[in-house]
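INSTRUCTION: Work out how this chain folds

Token vocabulary: learned, describes local backbone geometry

RECORD BEGINS BELOW THIS LINE
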Amino acid sequence: MRILSGMRSTGRLHLGHLVTLEKWKELQDGGNECFYFIANWHGLTSHIEETASFREWTLDIVRTYVSVGLDPEKSVLFVQSAIKEHAELFLYFSMLVSVSRLERVPTFKDQKEQITDRDLSSGGFLLYPVLQAADILMYLANGVPVGEDQIYHVELTREIARKFNAQFGEVFPEPEPLLARVPKLPGTDGRKMSKSYGNFILVDTNEKELWKMLAPMMTDPARKRRTDPGDPEKCPVWDYHKAFTSSQEERDWVVNGCKTAGIGCLDCKKVLQKNLVERLSPVWEKFNYLRENPRLLDDIIEDGNSRARTVAKETMRRVLGVTKLGW
């Protein structure tokens, strides 16, 4: 399969992103042709006042991509704004979607209601699912690894592909959404993980700071005292165990200990801390190496941009051919 996915350049990546990146790595190592990008144009929809930080955030995201195992020899790692063809295809696609259709996108309505500290009244915010469709279809992607909240966007992309193909001729496949093993990781307070809430744990952290976030983490409200039994399915810490504790023996120990009050919440968190440190230590080492050798990162980005641009130019050649808009 050809795979396409990306992350917005609106800050450093957290453990919720790590779950997604591990799915990306699995797809890469499974022999698929993968394109993974940094969606810095998408960052404009909510962080236009912070564009001065976009470059450093973009570099940080690419460091994280490579540190968790995305291989620039196997996957194309590139920056969205370096491929101007995305904007051109977005323009054509925007003519195929009505305003009323975009206003029915669930994430548009949800974010308008939930995000009150930023101006989301721009046309760009309304149209960003169309730009997403251009990102995906530019590379003729068959599969798109996404979270549950993005499935609707893939469906809109499929609609746009069908409409374009019906009107002009077959160019685009209809991509399928690919969900991660752990679709959604909650924040440390049990709410949705969000930079606005400050309830996330950065991938680029260290052992000491990791424990500072884990120790006070919310658990099952029923466990008010050490002797109270709990239910792991009502505890955000258990969601992290499911994502990062690979030993079935340790998982069983957590579940049985919680249900019988045989262990305390701190005991449970210490096991999670141990497993996260084991999982993240190689990532931290590679991340610091790339930070100390910036030219390596520049080379990865330049090569990825070049490879992505070659594919994008060929797609646009086909688009201009069938639409008769070539000049």
User: Anything to note?
Assistant: The beta strands are 2-8, 33-39, 75-79, 143-146, 176-179. The longest helix spans residues 294-323.
